[in-house]
Amino acid sequence: MRDISDGLGSGVTPEQLEASVELGNTWLNEIKLVVVFGATFVLLSLTTFRSHREYDFSDERAKAIEHKAGSLDLVERVRDFSAPVGAFEEEVGDVDGDIERLGEKLSDLRNNSESTAAMVRGKGALSSFFVAAGS
């Protein structure tokens, strides 16, 4: 390092050169520490992953399957229990439709009755029909 410094003629003092070399060695040791720490972390992570991968989850799986079957059974029982409600709602809808159609027919009947009564009272076209028929 001194030969390089002398050759470049940078005017660096031997103390400054020593301080630079010490600082460089310190940084190099810190970099090595980070690399070693990182490699250790990776190795521990892989070891942990392998140990979890090798864990037997068959008991948990059996419990999950059992809970799923129980849930499906409960859903089916609720569906069966509520089926009469659905049938009743359909019947109510049918009755509502019948009531609406009956109202429309009553409205038509009232309109026809009023039209006929107006013709009879007014001696309009209906009375001239009777006169023509009687002659």
What would you say this structure looks like, in words?
The chain is 90% helix and 0% strand. The chain has 135 residues and is an all-alpha fold. The protein folds into two domains: 1-55, no CATH class; 59-135. The N and C termini lie far apart (146 Å). The relative contact order is 0.03.
Please name the defining characteristics of this protein.
135 residues; single chain; 2 domains
**Average pLDDT score:** 79
Strand content: under 5%
Q: Count every beta strand, where a strand is a DSSP E run of 2 or more residues.
A: 0
Q: Which regions contain 5 or more consecutive residues with pLDDT less than 50?
A: none
Residues in helix, %: over 70%
- Radius of gyration, CA atoms, in whole angstroms: 51 Å
The arrangement of helices and strands along the chain is HHHH
- How many domains, as an integer? 2
Largest sheet: none
The tally of helices reads: 4
User: What structural category do the secondary elements indicate?
Assistant: mainly alpha
Shape designation: elongated
End-to-end Cα distance: 146 Å
